[in-house]
């Protein structure tokens, strides 16, 4: 039966395709069925197969639409288990990614809604592809922001490294969009800039991962303090004038130090936390790093070491050199300036003997908009 002329897996359509061929295909089927004594049963079988194919097509379309509303890997897991989803989470070591677009509020105020939609759609389409290509899971669009995770729901080896690969690729993509895409150029004109900055924060740690919400309405997501930390790191870019900030826990993950050039910026305790940790800026993939970027990373490593060892004079010298080099190659100079100012302060007013001091900057705010000129 399935060798009948014109049949294919998508229904009674000719193999060379097209709705215009549907009647021709059905005519071939009717000729194949013939007018003998079994033609009625054969015709009934043909109709059943056609209806089954149409039903499968509708199911496929619904699954495809469903996957546009929640992560595809989650949809696939639900289909494989064949069970009704329930609330539930489990601990999992993951790498968390937050991002948002600088000056997006101003762009929204100055562009028509249709222009804003085109602007965001172009950006989200490209970013979501980059995340997926690097084995990440896009969890949510948060206005102009993005929340993504690596190593959940599916296990991903070297998940921090893959996340950073995605982040660096996104930064390259944003720079190219600013140059060639008319929608982006229109958005840039509203804020008097030649390129838009996308701020990113990345943190690795253990979260509760799974279905959260209410029995009648739930989503696949993350719970835990590590999610807040990633969000704070994204916002720290405002303070340091940077684009991609990672925590030291990311830096320690397999593949990161070997494949990326990062410069330590500071030791911080984010709002709501008493313990501090080192934060780093991702300058480049190691394969694409310039000599100047490598020198810059080395300057910051030595400067922070001197700063924490109370050698504030040496720290000031190194950070002033870093600021100078940063300006000359177009990297952010603000991080060096901020830490230099701190070192100058402590050079004149050193920590008192017996005082517990570890060089941690305690950030009292969730967001920072006080960048000096």
From TrEMBL:
Chain spans, region Disordered: 345-373
BP term (GO), one: intracellular signal transduction
Domain of life of the native organism: Eukaryota
Biased composition (Basic and acidic residues): 345-359
Pfam families reported for this sequence: Guanylate_cyc
PROSITE patterns xref list: GUANYLATE_CYCLASE_2
InterPro entries: A/G_cyclase, Adenylyl/Guanylyl_Cyclase_3/4, Nucleotide_cyclase
Residues annotated as domain Guanylate cyclase: 95-234
PANTHER family on file: ADENYLATE CYCLASE, TERMINAL-DIFFERENTIATION SPECIFIC (PTHR43081:SF1), ADENYLATE CYCLASE, TERMINAL-DIFFERENTIATION SPECIFIC-RELATED (PTHR43081)
This protein's name: Nitrogen permease regulator 2
Species assigned in the record: Perkinsus olseni (Perkinsus atlanticus)
Gene this protein is translated from: NPR2_2
């Amino acid at each position: 039966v399935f060798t009948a002329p014109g049949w294919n897996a998508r229904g009674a359509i000719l193999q060379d395709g097209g709705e215009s061929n549907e009647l021709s295909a059905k005519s071939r089927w009717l000729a194949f069925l013939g007018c003998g004594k079994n033609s009625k049963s054969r015709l009934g079988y043909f109709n059943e197969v056609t209806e089954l194919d149409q039903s499968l097509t509708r199911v496929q379309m619904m699954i495809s639409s469903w996957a546009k509303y929640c992560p595809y890997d989650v949809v696939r897991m639900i289909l494989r288990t064949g069970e009704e989803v329930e609330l539930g989470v489990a601990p999992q070591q993951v790498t968390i990614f937050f991002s948002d677009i600088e000056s997006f509020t101003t762009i929204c105020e100055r562009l028509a809604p249709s222009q804003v939609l085109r602007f965001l759609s172009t950006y989200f389409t490209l970013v979501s592809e980059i995340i997926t290509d690097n084995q990440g899971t896009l969890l949510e669009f948060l206005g102009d922001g993005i929340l993504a995770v690596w190593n959940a729901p599916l296990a991903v080896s070297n998940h921090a490294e893959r996340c950073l690969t995605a982040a660096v690729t996104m930064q390259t993509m944003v720079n190219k969009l600013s140059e060639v895409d008319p929608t982006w150029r229109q958005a840039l004109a509203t804020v008097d800039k030649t390129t838009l900055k996308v701020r990113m924060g990345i943190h690795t740690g253990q979260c509760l991962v799974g279905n959260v919400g209410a029995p009648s309405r739930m989503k696949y997501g993350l719970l835990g303090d590590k999610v807040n930390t990633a969000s704070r790191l994204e916002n720290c870019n405002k303070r340091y004038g940077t684009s991609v900030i990672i925590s030291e826990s990311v830096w320690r993950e397999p593949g990161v130090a070997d494949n990326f050039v990062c410069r330590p910026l500071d030791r911080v305790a984010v709002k709501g936390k008493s313990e501090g940790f080192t934060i780093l800026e991702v300058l480049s993939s190691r394969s694409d790093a310039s000599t100047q970027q490598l020198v810059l990373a080395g300057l910051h490593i030595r400067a922070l070491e001197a700063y924490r060892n109370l050698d504030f004079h040496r720290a000031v010298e190194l950070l002033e050199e870093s600021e100078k080099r940063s300006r000359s190659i177009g990297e952010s100079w603000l991080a060096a300036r901020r830490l230099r100012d701190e070192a100058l302060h402590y050079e004149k007013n050193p920590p008192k003997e017996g005082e517990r001091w570890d060089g941690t900057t305690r950030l009292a705010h969730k967001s920072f908009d006080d960048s000096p000129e």
